[in-house]
Design brief:
Blueprint: H1 2-109
Length: about 110
């Protein structure tokens, strides 16, 4: 009976040691987890800011495209205006030439 008691005492001591080791491992794991959790929480604002920066970058690219298109539209409008003015000028010259020709033909008939 004493031998069995000693055996049980040793088993209890062994189990107690294992429990203490497991408790230490658990505490270390919880500490490591908390450190990682804190680091992640510290990075979260930076990550959100990075996402916002990407959105702003895309918006800026769109603005640049719009400004470029506006410049191209302005150039094309100016070309169109100059073309219209040239067409008017040519039509006026044509009308003058036709009138001169008509006058010349009229003079030749008389």
């Amino acid at each position: 009976m004493i031998a069995e008691k000693n055996k049980l005492s040793k088993e209890i001591a062994t189990k107690q040691n294992e429990k203490e080791q497991q408790s230490k491992i658990l505490q270390e794991t919880e500490k490591a987890f908390q450190i990682l959790k804190d680091q992640l929480a510290a990075l979260e604002p930076q990550f959100k800011a990075l996402e916002q920066s990407r959105i702003q970058e895309n918006d800026l690219h769109l603005i640049i495209q719009i400004l470029t298109f506006n410049d191209e539209i302005k150039i094309l409008k100016e070309r169109t205006q100059k073309g219209s003015e040239k067409v008017k000028e040519v039509n006026l010259n044509k009308d003058k030439i036709q009138k001169r020709l008509m006058n010349f033909l009229h003079i030749l008939k008389h």
